[in-house]
Amino acid sequence: MIEIAGVGMRFTSGDRSVDVLADVTLAIPPRQFVAIAGPSGSGKSTLLGLIAGLDRPSAGRIRVAGAEVTALGEDALARFRLDTIGYIFQSFHLIPTLTALENVAVPLELAGEADALPRARALLDEVGLGDRAEHYPVQLSGGEQQRVAVARAVARRPPVLLADEPTGNLDSATGKQIIELILGLNRTLGSTLVLVTHDPALAAHADRLITLRDGRVVADEASLGPHV
């Protein structure tokens, strides 16, 4: 499902270069729930963005759901993200001028689905926000905004779901609810889930825990915690 081979990522600022990722090689099979952990600056979010085709690596190749992501042009990359990837950001990334309903409908409308609004409304019901459909992001709590973001991410039933610190801006109780929501929806979808987290309790729910440090994989093991 996800094949990462010899991936490196180097950022250059002036005459200074920093290797954020170095020779990362991983294979993630379909339907596996993988948690990526490690200290700040270890390259976790960079790796997730590369899997999604949000950026291109400096070295190596990435293949996702049969697509050679690192070889795609911009138009093909946009289509790949629309058809294959659901992405949940730490900071929600909702469009402030659109209602909750309209935010969820965006990927459906981009894909040309005729029933975009009814489908988006059903998704909001599914995440417990049916009564907030006409509210704008500024009128929603952080937890509600993240629920909208989760509904948007799963709207097209993507085979790959990526989550970057999805509870990082939430209190612990709300964060627990969001994780239960993501895991429940993912079980229904049967997607491959890759989740970046600092939280050991959250990582314990995964099938597999990959630890990065200084841009390299330093551990790759089955999670020992309780799966839900």
What does this structure look like?
The chain has 228 residues and is an alpha/beta fold. The chain has one domain (2-222): Rossmann fold. Helix content is 33%, strand content 29%. Strands 6-7-8-3-9-10 form a six-stranded mixed sheet. Strands 2-1-4-5 form a four-stranded antiparallel sheet, covered by helices on one side. Helix 3 (100-110) crosses helix 4 (116-126). It is globular. The two termini are 22 Å apart. The relative contact order is 0.20.
Q: Over the alpha carbons, how many angstroms does the gyration radius reach?
A: 17 Å
CATH H-level homologous superfamily name: P-loop containing nucleotide triphosphate hydrolases
At the third CATH level, what is the topology name? Rossmann fold
Shape: globular
Q: How many individual β-strands?
A: 10
Roughly what percent helix?
25-40%
C-alpha termini separation: 22 Å
Highest-level CATH class: Alpha Beta
Instruction: Supply the CATH architecture.
Output: 3-Layer(aba) Sandwich
How would the blueprint of this fold be written?
Blueprint: E1 2-13, E2 16-28, E3 33-37, H1 44-51, E4 59-64, E5 67-68, H2 74-84, E6 85-88, H3 100-110, H4 116-126, H5 142-154, E7 160-164, H6 172-189, E8 192-196, H7 200-203, E9 208-213, E10 216-222
Parallel strand pairs: 3-8, 3-9, 6-7, 7-8
Antiparallel strand pairs: 1-2, 1-4, 4-5, 9-10
